[in-house]
Design goal:
Shape: globular
CATH class of the largest domain: Mainly Beta
Oligomer: single chain
Distance between the termini: 59 Å
Radius of gyration: 29 Å
Number of strands: 33
Structural class: alpha+beta
Number of helices: 7
Bound molecules: zinc ion
CATH topology of the largest domain: Glucose Permease (Domain IIA)
Strand content: 35-45%
Largest sheet: 8 strands, antiparallel
CATH architecture of the largest domain: Distorted Sandwich
CATH superfamily of the largest domain: Glucose Permease (Domain IIA)
Length: 495
Protein backbone atom coordinates (compact mmCIF):
# COMPACT_ATOMS: atom_id res chain seq x y z
CA UNK A 1 0.00 0.00 0.00
CA UNK A 2 1.24 3.45 -0.85
CA UNK A 3 0.43 5.96 1.82
CA UNK A 4 0.89 9.60 1.11
CA UNK A 5 -0.39 12.88 2.31
CA UNK A 6 -2.34 14.76 -0.27
CA UNK A 7 -1.50 18.28 0.76
CA UNK A 8 1.79 19.73 -0.40
CA UNK A 9 4.15 21.26 2.12
CA UNK A 10 4.41 25.01 1.90
CA UNK A 11 7.40 27.28 2.25
CA UNK A 12 6.41 30.41 4.04
CA UNK A 13 7.96 33.85 3.81
CA UNK A 14 6.53 36.02 6.53
CA UNK A 15 6.44 39.67 5.63
CA UNK A 16 5.73 42.87 7.58
CA UNK A 17 6.52 41.32 10.93
CA UNK A 18 3.57 39.00 11.01
CA UNK A 19 4.20 35.43 11.88
CA UNK A 20 2.61 32.74 9.88
CA UNK A 21 2.92 29.09 10.40
CA UNK A 22 1.32 26.43 8.38
CA UNK A 23 0.95 22.85 9.22
CA UNK A 24 0.26 20.85 6.18
CA UNK A 25 -1.38 17.71 7.43
CA UNK A 26 -4.07 16.73 5.02
CA UNK A 27 -6.05 19.85 5.75
CA UNK A 28 -4.14 23.10 5.93
CA UNK A 29 -4.28 25.16 9.03
CA UNK A 30 -3.51 28.77 8.56
CA UNK A 31 -2.65 30.50 11.74
CA UNK A 32 -2.09 34.12 11.27
CA UNK A 33 -1.17 36.18 14.29
CA UNK A 34 -0.51 39.86 14.12
CA UNK A 35 -2.33 42.92 15.37
CA UNK A 36 -2.58 44.64 12.01
CA UNK A 37 -3.70 43.29 8.69
CA UNK A 38 -0.77 41.66 7.05
CA UNK A 39 0.21 40.63 3.61
CA UNK A 40 1.87 37.30 3.24
CA UNK A 41 3.36 35.47 0.35
CA UNK A 42 3.32 31.75 0.36
CA UNK A 43 5.24 29.94 -2.28
CA UNK A 44 5.50 26.25 -2.64
CA UNK A 45 8.23 24.40 -4.42
CA UNK A 46 6.34 21.69 -6.14
CA UNK A 47 2.68 22.48 -6.45
CA UNK A 48 1.70 26.12 -6.17
CA UNK A 49 -1.44 27.38 -4.54
CA UNK A 50 -3.21 30.66 -4.01
CA UNK A 51 -5.34 31.93 -1.22
CA UNK A 52 -7.63 34.92 -1.27
CA UNK A 53 -9.32 36.29 1.74
CA UNK A 54 -12.57 38.19 1.58
CA UNK A 55 -13.54 41.15 3.83
CA UNK A 56 -15.84 38.89 5.80
CA UNK A 57 -12.94 36.68 6.74
CA UNK A 58 -13.75 33.97 4.25
CA UNK A 59 -10.94 32.32 2.40
CA UNK A 60 -10.87 31.14 -1.14
CA UNK A 61 -7.94 29.02 -2.11
CA UNK A 62 -6.92 27.51 -5.38
CA UNK A 63 -4.22 25.06 -6.30
CA UNK A 64 -2.07 25.58 -9.37
CA UNK A 65 -1.36 29.30 -9.29
CA UNK A 66 2.06 30.61 -8.60
CA UNK A 67 1.78 32.40 -5.28
CA UNK A 68 -0.40 32.79 -2.27
CA UNK A 69 -1.28 36.26 -1.08
CA UNK A 70 -2.99 36.55 2.25
CA UNK A 71 -4.21 39.96 3.38
CA UNK A 72 -6.34 39.75 6.45
CA UNK A 73 -6.95 40.37 10.08
CA UNK A 74 -5.77 37.52 12.26
CA UNK A 75 -7.65 34.38 11.60
CA UNK A 76 -7.42 30.68 11.99
CA UNK A 77 -8.76 28.94 8.97
CA UNK A 78 -9.02 25.36 8.02
CA UNK A 79 -8.71 24.48 4.40
CA UNK A 80 -9.63 21.17 2.93
CA UNK A 81 -9.20 19.61 -0.43
CA UNK A 82 -12.39 19.17 -2.36
CA UNK A 83 -12.26 16.03 -4.49
CA UNK A 84 -14.80 17.33 -6.93
CA UNK A 85 -12.97 20.48 -7.90
CA UNK A 86 -9.46 19.65 -6.60
CA UNK A 87 -9.50 23.05 -4.96
CA UNK A 88 -8.79 23.92 -1.38
CA UNK A 89 -11.96 25.09 0.25
CA UNK A 90 -12.03 27.08 3.43
CA UNK A 91 -14.28 25.39 5.90
CA UNK A 92 -13.73 27.73 8.81
CA UNK A 93 -12.24 31.15 9.47
CA UNK A 94 -12.19 32.33 13.05
CA UNK A 95 -10.51 35.41 14.62
CA UNK A 96 -7.40 34.39 16.58
CA UNK A 97 -8.37 35.66 20.00
CA UNK A 98 -11.41 33.44 20.12
CA UNK A 99 -9.76 30.73 18.11
CA UNK A 100 -7.23 30.06 20.83
CA UNK A 101 -10.04 29.12 23.18
CA UNK A 102 -12.11 27.02 20.88
CA UNK A 103 -9.37 25.57 18.78
CA UNK A 104 -10.03 21.88 18.44
CA UNK A 105 -7.50 19.49 17.14
CA UNK A 106 -8.50 19.13 13.52
CA UNK A 107 -9.20 16.01 11.54
CA UNK A 108 -6.36 14.15 9.92
CA UNK A 109 -6.68 13.44 6.25
CA UNK A 110 -4.82 10.71 4.44
CA UNK A 111 -4.79 9.76 0.80
CA UNK A 112 -4.12 6.11 0.08
CA UNK A 113 -3.72 4.45 -3.30
CA UNK A 114 -4.99 0.95 -3.98
CA UNK A 115 -2.16 -1.38 -4.98
CA UNK A 116 -2.31 -4.84 -6.48
CA UNK A 117 -3.58 -7.34 -3.91
CA UNK A 118 -5.06 -4.74 -1.55
CA UNK A 119 -8.55 -5.17 -0.17
CA UNK A 120 -10.47 -2.21 1.15
CA UNK A 121 -10.27 -3.79 4.60
CA UNK A 122 -6.46 -4.16 4.48
CA UNK A 123 -6.08 -0.59 3.18
CA UNK A 124 -8.25 0.98 5.87
CA UNK A 125 -6.60 -0.97 8.67
CA UNK A 126 -3.09 -0.13 7.39
CA UNK A 127 -4.05 3.56 7.25
CA UNK A 128 -5.07 3.52 10.93
CA UNK A 129 -8.69 2.38 11.13
CA UNK A 130 -9.65 -0.35 13.58
CA UNK A 131 -11.16 -3.50 12.13
CA UNK A 132 -14.58 -2.60 13.49
CA UNK A 133 -14.44 0.92 11.96
CA UNK A 134 -13.29 -0.50 8.63
CA UNK A 135 -16.03 -3.10 8.77
CA UNK A 136 -18.65 -0.41 9.53
CA UNK A 137 -17.49 1.84 6.69
CA UNK A 138 -17.31 -1.03 4.19
CA UNK A 139 -20.76 -2.31 5.15
CA UNK A 140 -22.20 1.18 4.59
CA UNK A 141 -20.33 1.51 1.30
CA UNK A 142 -21.97 -1.66 -0.02
CA UNK A 143 -25.25 0.29 -0.32
CA UNK A 144 -23.85 2.35 -3.19
CA UNK A 145 -20.70 0.58 -4.35
CA UNK A 146 -19.32 -2.96 -4.25
CA UNK A 147 -15.99 -2.91 -2.35
CA UNK A 148 -14.82 -5.77 -4.58
CA UNK A 149 -14.83 -3.41 -7.54
CA UNK A 150 -11.93 -1.28 -6.27
CA UNK A 151 -8.97 -1.45 -8.62
CA UNK A 152 -5.23 -0.74 -8.32
CA UNK A 153 -4.50 2.94 -8.86
CA UNK A 154 -7.68 4.20 -7.23
CA UNK A 155 -7.03 7.05 -4.77
CA UNK A 156 -9.07 6.97 -1.58
CA UNK A 157 -9.29 10.02 0.72
CA UNK A 158 -9.66 9.10 4.38
CA UNK A 159 -10.56 11.41 7.24
CA UNK A 160 -9.67 10.46 10.81
CA UNK A 161 -10.46 12.34 13.99
CA UNK A 162 -7.43 13.81 15.75
CA UNK A 163 -6.26 11.37 18.47
CA UNK A 164 -6.64 14.08 21.13
CA UNK A 165 -9.96 15.44 19.91
CA UNK A 166 -12.05 15.73 23.12
CA UNK A 167 -15.34 15.67 21.20
CA UNK A 168 -14.73 12.19 19.92
CA UNK A 169 -16.06 9.35 22.00
CA UNK A 170 -13.39 6.71 22.41
CA UNK A 171 -14.03 3.03 22.94
CA UNK A 172 -13.33 1.86 26.47
CA UNK A 173 -10.73 -0.54 25.20
CA UNK A 174 -8.85 0.53 22.08
CA UNK A 175 -8.46 -2.25 19.52
CA UNK A 176 -5.01 -1.06 18.52
CA UNK A 177 -2.43 1.62 19.14
CA UNK A 178 -2.52 4.31 16.48
CA UNK A 179 -1.57 7.90 15.67
CA UNK A 180 -5.07 8.86 14.57
CA UNK A 181 -8.52 8.92 16.12
CA UNK A 182 -11.55 7.05 14.77
CA UNK A 183 -12.24 6.87 11.03
CA UNK A 184 -14.70 9.63 10.13
CA UNK A 185 -15.00 9.55 6.36
CA UNK A 186 -13.87 7.85 3.18
CA UNK A 187 -14.25 9.27 -0.32
CA UNK A 188 -13.20 8.21 -3.81
CA UNK A 189 -14.11 8.61 -7.42
CA UNK A 190 -14.67 5.29 -9.22
CA UNK A 191 -15.28 7.13 -12.50
CA UNK A 192 -15.29 10.71 -13.72
CA UNK A 193 -19.08 10.76 -13.48
CA UNK A 194 -19.32 9.48 -9.96
CA UNK A 195 -18.10 10.25 -6.43
CA UNK A 196 -18.71 7.83 -3.57
CA UNK A 197 -18.60 9.02 0.01
CA UNK A 198 -18.96 7.28 3.37
CA UNK A 199 -19.21 9.45 6.48
CA UNK A 200 -20.24 9.21 10.11
CA UNK A 201 -23.56 10.49 11.37
CA UNK A 202 -23.71 13.14 14.11
CA UNK A 203 -24.72 12.34 17.67
CA UNK A 204 -24.45 9.60 20.24
CA UNK A 205 -25.16 6.52 18.15
CA UNK A 206 -22.87 7.50 15.34
CA UNK A 207 -22.89 5.10 12.40
CA UNK A 208 -21.50 5.13 8.88
CA UNK A 209 -23.70 6.13 5.96
CA UNK A 210 -22.86 6.10 2.26
CA UNK A 211 -23.89 8.48 -0.48
CA UNK A 212 -23.25 8.82 -4.17
CA UNK A 213 -22.76 12.05 -6.08
CA UNK A 214 -23.36 11.99 -9.83
CA UNK A 215 -21.71 14.50 -12.12
CA UNK A 216 -23.62 14.90 -15.36
CA UNK A 217 -21.39 15.07 -18.43
CA UNK A 218 -22.20 16.53 -21.81
CA UNK A 219 -20.93 14.89 -24.98
CA UNK A 220 -19.66 17.02 -27.84
CA UNK A 221 -17.92 16.03 -31.04
CA UNK A 222 -14.36 17.27 -31.26
CA UNK A 223 -12.12 17.56 -34.30
CA UNK A 224 -8.37 18.03 -34.35
CA UNK A 225 -6.02 18.29 -37.28
CA UNK A 226 -2.39 19.20 -37.68
CA UNK A 227 0.60 18.91 -39.93
CA UNK A 228 3.18 16.38 -38.81
CA UNK A 229 6.63 17.91 -38.57
CA UNK A 230 8.47 15.27 -36.55
CA UNK A 231 6.14 12.64 -35.13
CA UNK A 232 2.43 11.95 -35.03
CA UNK A 233 2.65 12.01 -31.24
CA UNK A 234 4.05 15.56 -31.16
CA UNK A 235 1.72 16.83 -33.86
CA UNK A 236 -1.29 15.46 -31.95
CA UNK A 237 -0.05 16.71 -28.56
CA UNK A 238 0.43 20.20 -29.98
CA UNK A 239 -3.28 20.45 -30.77
CA UNK A 240 -4.34 18.82 -27.47
CA UNK A 241 -5.54 15.47 -28.78
CA UNK A 242 -6.21 13.46 -25.61
CA UNK A 243 -3.91 10.49 -25.05
CA UNK A 244 -6.71 7.90 -25.18
CA UNK A 245 -7.72 9.10 -28.61
CA UNK A 246 -4.16 9.09 -29.84
CA UNK A 247 -3.79 5.47 -28.73
CA UNK A 248 -7.03 4.53 -30.51
CA UNK A 249 -5.82 6.24 -33.66
CA UNK A 250 -2.42 4.53 -33.59
CA UNK A 251 -4.10 1.16 -32.98
CA UNK A 252 -6.55 1.65 -35.83
CA UNK A 253 -3.73 2.46 -38.25
CA UNK A 254 -1.20 0.01 -36.88
CA UNK A 255 -1.99 -2.63 -39.53
CA UNK A 256 -1.24 -0.25 -42.37
CA UNK A 257 1.31 2.19 -41.09
CA UNK A 258 4.72 1.67 -39.54
CA UNK A 259 4.79 4.75 -37.33
CA UNK A 260 8.52 4.51 -36.77
CA UNK A 261 9.44 4.61 -40.44
CA UNK A 262 6.63 5.79 -42.67
CA UNK A 263 5.81 9.19 -41.20
CA UNK A 264 7.51 12.04 -43.04
CA UNK A 265 7.72 15.77 -42.71
CA UNK A 266 4.75 17.39 -44.42
CA UNK A 267 2.34 14.55 -43.65
CA UNK A 268 -0.80 15.44 -41.71
CA UNK A 269 -3.54 13.91 -39.61
CA UNK A 270 -7.16 14.58 -38.73
CA UNK A 271 -9.24 12.93 -36.03
CA UNK A 272 -12.89 13.26 -34.92
CA UNK A 273 -13.89 11.93 -31.52
CA UNK A 274 -16.41 12.11 -28.70
CA UNK A 275 -15.47 14.41 -25.82
CA UNK A 276 -17.34 14.51 -22.52
CA UNK A 277 -17.36 17.75 -20.54
CA UNK A 278 -18.29 18.40 -16.92
CA UNK A 279 -20.51 21.24 -15.72
CA UNK A 280 -17.56 23.64 -15.65
CA UNK A 281 -16.74 22.91 -19.27
CA UNK A 282 -13.63 20.89 -18.48
CA UNK A 283 -12.90 17.78 -20.50
CA UNK A 284 -13.73 14.90 -18.16
CA UNK A 285 -13.12 11.96 -20.48
CA UNK A 286 -13.14 10.92 -24.08
CA UNK A 287 -15.35 8.42 -25.87
CA UNK A 288 -14.86 6.80 -29.24
CA UNK A 289 -12.80 7.90 -32.18
CA UNK A 290 -15.29 8.18 -35.06
CA UNK A 291 -13.04 9.14 -37.88
CA UNK A 292 -9.36 9.32 -38.66
CA UNK A 293 -7.39 10.57 -41.62
CA UNK A 294 -3.69 10.29 -42.24
CA UNK A 295 -2.19 12.01 -45.22
CA UNK A 296 1.08 10.22 -45.89
CA UNK A 297 3.21 11.41 -48.83
CA UNK A 298 0.06 12.79 -50.49
CA UNK A 299 -2.12 9.69 -49.97
CA UNK A 300 -5.22 9.94 -47.80
CA UNK A 301 -5.87 6.99 -45.49
CA UNK A 302 -9.36 7.46 -44.07
CA UNK A 303 -10.99 5.32 -41.41
CA UNK A 304 -14.62 5.32 -40.28
CA UNK A 305 -15.90 3.64 -37.15
CA UNK A 306 -18.69 1.19 -37.94
CA UNK A 307 -20.49 -1.78 -36.36
CA UNK A 308 -21.51 -4.41 -38.93
CA UNK A 309 -24.19 -7.03 -38.32
CA UNK A 310 -21.55 -9.32 -36.73
CA UNK A 311 -21.64 -6.90 -33.78
CA UNK A 312 -17.86 -6.32 -33.76
CA UNK A 313 -17.17 -2.61 -34.07
CA UNK A 314 -14.22 -1.83 -36.27
CA UNK A 315 -12.62 0.81 -38.51
CA UNK A 316 -13.20 0.64 -42.26
CA UNK A 317 -11.74 2.64 -45.13
CA UNK A 318 -14.03 4.64 -47.44
CA UNK A 319 -14.63 1.50 -49.54
CA UNK A 320 -15.78 -0.57 -46.57
CA UNK A 321 -12.58 -2.60 -46.26
CA UNK A 322 -11.60 -3.35 -42.65
CA UNK A 323 -8.48 -1.57 -41.44
CA UNK A 324 -7.52 -4.80 -39.76
CA UNK A 325 -5.43 -7.40 -41.43
CA UNK A 326 -5.75 -11.04 -40.53
CA UNK A 327 -2.59 -10.62 -38.41
CA UNK A 328 -1.01 -7.78 -36.46
CA UNK A 329 2.58 -6.92 -37.25
CA UNK A 330 3.22 -5.64 -33.72
CA UNK A 331 1.15 -7.54 -31.15
CA UNK A 332 2.23 -5.30 -28.25
CA UNK A 333 1.62 -1.60 -27.48
CA UNK A 334 4.33 1.02 -27.12
CA UNK A 335 7.09 -1.40 -28.00
CA UNK A 336 10.41 -0.58 -29.60
CA UNK A 337 11.72 -2.88 -32.31
CA UNK A 338 14.99 -4.11 -30.80
CA UNK A 339 16.04 -6.85 -33.17
CA UNK A 340 15.02 -7.58 -36.75
CA UNK A 341 14.46 -10.79 -38.65
CA UNK A 342 17.53 -12.35 -40.27
CA UNK A 343 21.14 -13.24 -39.57
CA UNK A 344 22.61 -11.71 -36.43
CA UNK A 345 25.17 -12.28 -33.74
CA UNK A 346 23.27 -13.89 -30.90
CA UNK A 347 23.32 -11.62 -27.82
CA UNK A 348 23.63 -14.54 -25.37
CA UNK A 349 25.41 -17.28 -27.33
CA UNK A 350 27.79 -14.90 -29.14
CA UNK A 351 27.88 -16.60 -32.55
CA UNK A 352 26.01 -15.73 -35.74
CA UNK A 353 22.64 -17.37 -35.98
CA UNK A 354 19.45 -16.87 -37.93
CA UNK A 355 16.97 -14.76 -35.96
CA UNK A 356 13.65 -16.26 -37.00
CA UNK A 357 11.42 -13.57 -35.54
CA UNK A 358 11.49 -9.96 -34.44
CA UNK A 359 12.12 -8.68 -30.92
CA UNK A 360 10.12 -5.90 -29.35
CA UNK A 361 11.55 -4.34 -26.21
CA UNK A 362 8.80 -3.32 -23.79
CA UNK A 363 8.50 -2.98 -20.02
CA UNK A 364 7.96 -6.19 -18.06
CA UNK A 365 4.23 -6.87 -17.69
CA UNK A 366 3.17 -5.11 -20.93
CA UNK A 367 0.17 -7.03 -22.36
CA UNK A 368 0.78 -9.15 -25.46
CA UNK A 369 -2.12 -9.59 -27.92
CA UNK A 370 -3.13 -12.50 -30.10
CA UNK A 371 -2.08 -11.24 -33.55
CA UNK A 372 -5.19 -12.70 -35.14
CA UNK A 373 -8.23 -14.90 -34.56
CA UNK A 374 -7.22 -18.51 -34.07
CA UNK A 375 -6.70 -21.57 -31.89
CA UNK A 376 -3.91 -21.97 -29.33
CA UNK A 377 -1.55 -24.83 -30.27
CA UNK A 378 0.56 -24.54 -27.13
CA UNK A 379 0.87 -22.32 -24.05
CA UNK A 380 3.61 -23.58 -21.75
CA UNK A 381 7.31 -23.52 -20.93
CA UNK A 382 9.31 -24.30 -24.11
CA UNK A 383 13.09 -24.62 -23.50
CA UNK A 384 15.06 -21.47 -24.38
CA UNK A 385 11.85 -19.67 -25.42
CA UNK A 386 10.71 -19.62 -21.78
CA UNK A 387 6.96 -19.14 -21.45
CA UNK A 388 5.70 -19.60 -24.97
CA UNK A 389 2.42 -19.40 -26.90
CA UNK A 390 1.75 -20.59 -30.45
CA UNK A 391 -1.51 -19.83 -32.28
CA UNK A 392 -2.84 -21.33 -35.52
CA UNK A 393 -4.71 -18.87 -37.77
CA UNK A 394 -6.52 -19.45 -41.06
CA UNK A 395 -4.89 -19.60 -44.53
CA UNK A 396 -1.77 -21.44 -43.28
CA UNK A 397 -0.53 -18.84 -40.85
CA UNK A 398 0.75 -19.35 -37.31
CA UNK A 399 2.21 -16.93 -34.80
CA UNK A 400 4.48 -17.57 -31.80
CA UNK A 401 5.32 -15.47 -28.74
CA UNK A 402 8.28 -16.15 -26.43
CA UNK A 403 9.96 -15.11 -23.15
CA UNK A 404 6.61 -14.17 -21.56
CA UNK A 405 6.44 -13.33 -17.88
CA UNK A 406 3.22 -15.32 -17.68
CA UNK A 407 0.04 -16.25 -19.49
CA UNK A 408 -3.25 -14.37 -19.35
CA UNK A 409 -6.16 -16.06 -17.60
CA UNK A 410 -7.73 -18.87 -19.61
CA UNK A 411 -4.93 -19.10 -22.15
CA UNK A 412 -4.19 -22.79 -22.73
CA UNK A 413 -3.98 -25.38 -25.48
CA UNK A 414 -7.04 -25.71 -27.79
CA UNK A 415 -8.62 -22.44 -26.63
CA UNK A 416 -9.99 -20.03 -29.26
CA UNK A 417 -8.70 -16.48 -29.17
CA UNK A 418 -9.75 -13.32 -30.97
CA UNK A 419 -7.43 -10.79 -32.52
CA UNK A 420 -6.29 -8.27 -29.90
CA UNK A 421 -7.15 -10.52 -26.95
CA UNK A 422 -4.47 -10.44 -24.24
CA UNK A 423 -2.65 -13.79 -24.16
CA UNK A 424 0.24 -12.98 -21.82
CA UNK A 425 2.71 -10.39 -20.59
CA UNK A 426 6.20 -9.29 -21.59
CA UNK A 427 8.93 -10.91 -19.52
CA UNK A 428 12.39 -12.36 -19.84
CA UNK A 429 11.94 -16.09 -19.21
CA UNK A 430 14.11 -18.62 -21.06
CA UNK A 431 17.32 -17.55 -22.79
CA UNK A 432 16.90 -13.80 -22.78
CA UNK A 433 18.90 -10.70 -21.86
CA UNK A 434 16.04 -8.48 -20.74
CA UNK A 435 12.26 -7.96 -20.97
CA UNK A 436 11.16 -8.29 -24.60
CA UNK A 437 8.74 -10.14 -26.82
CA UNK A 438 10.20 -12.50 -29.41
CA UNK A 439 7.52 -12.70 -32.09
CA UNK A 440 7.38 -15.11 -35.03
CA UNK A 441 5.02 -15.38 -37.98
CA UNK A 442 4.99 -18.75 -39.73
CA UNK A 443 3.52 -19.42 -43.18
CA UNK A 444 3.03 -23.09 -44.10
CA UNK A 445 5.28 -24.04 -41.19
CA UNK A 446 8.22 -21.72 -42.01
CA UNK A 447 9.17 -18.52 -40.25
CA UNK A 448 8.73 -15.38 -42.36
CA UNK A 449 9.59 -11.76 -41.59
CA UNK A 450 6.57 -10.40 -39.64
CA UNK A 451 7.39 -6.87 -40.78
CA UNK A 452 7.88 -7.74 -44.43
CA UNK A 453 5.28 -10.42 -45.16
CA UNK A 454 2.19 -9.41 -47.13
CA UNK A 455 -0.59 -10.14 -44.67
CA UNK A 456 -3.97 -11.54 -45.69
CA UNK A 457 -6.63 -8.83 -45.72
CA UNK A 458 -9.37 -8.51 -43.13
CA UNK A 459 -13.12 -8.30 -43.59
CA UNK A 460 -14.72 -6.47 -46.53
CA UNK A 461 -18.27 -5.26 -45.93
CA UNK A 462 -20.93 -6.75 -48.23
CA UNK A 463 -24.58 -6.25 -49.12
CA UNK A 464 -26.70 -4.93 -46.23
CA UNK A 465 -23.64 -4.07 -44.13
CA UNK A 466 -22.06 -2.14 -46.97
CA UNK A 467 -25.27 -0.22 -47.57
CA UNK A 468 -25.56 0.67 -43.90
CA UNK A 469 -21.88 1.63 -43.83
CA UNK A 470 -22.36 4.08 -46.72
CA UNK A 471 -25.14 5.81 -44.78
CA UNK A 472 -22.97 6.01 -41.68
CA UNK A 473 -20.04 7.35 -43.69
CA UNK A 474 -22.20 10.12 -45.20
CA UNK A 475 -23.37 11.11 -41.71
CA UNK A 476 -19.81 11.31 -40.41
CA UNK A 477 -18.66 13.28 -43.47
CA UNK A 478 -21.44 15.83 -42.93
CA UNK A 479 -20.51 16.12 -39.26
CA UNK A 480 -16.85 16.75 -40.17
CA UNK A 481 -17.95 19.50 -42.55
CA UNK A 482 -19.95 21.14 -39.75
CA UNK A 483 -17.06 20.83 -37.31
CA UNK A 484 -14.72 22.45 -39.82
CA UNK A 485 -16.94 25.50 -40.13
CA UNK A 486 -18.37 26.11 -36.66
CA UNK A 487 -18.94 29.80 -37.50
CA UNK A 488 -21.44 28.85 -40.19
CA UNK A 489 -23.42 26.74 -37.71
CA UNK A 490 -23.41 29.50 -35.10
CA UNK A 491 -24.78 31.87 -37.75
CA UNK A 492 -27.52 29.42 -38.65
CA UNK A 493 -28.48 29.01 -35.02
CA UNK A 494 -28.77 32.73 -34.36
CA UNK A 495 -30.91 33.30 -37.45
ZN1 LIG B 1 14.09 -12.90 -30.69
Amino acid sequence: MKNRFHTPTFMVNAALGGSLSILALGGIYFWLSSSTPIEEQVTNQSKAASVEMGKDGSIIANANTQEITVASPEVVATLKTDLLTSEYIAVGAVPTETAADILEPSDIEKMVTVSHGDTLMSLLVAAGATRSEAHGAITALTDVYSPRKIRPGLDIALTFAHPSDPTVKKPVVEEKERDVGPLRAMQFQPSVERIVKVSTTEGEDSTYIAEEIQRPLTMKMARSANEITSSLYLAATNVDVPNDIMIKMIRAYSFDVDFQREIQKGDSFEVVYEAYYDEDGNLARTGDMLYGKLNLSGDDLQLYRFTPSSGFTDYFNEKGQSAKKALMRTPVDGARLSSRFGKRKHPVLGYTKMHKGVDFAAPRGTPIYAAGDGVILRANRFSSFGNYVKIRHHSGYETAYAHMKGFAKGIRKSKRVRQGQVIGYVGTTGRSTGPHLHYEVLFNGRQVNPLGVKLPAGEKLKKADLKKFKGEKAKINKMIKDLKHPAAIAKLETN
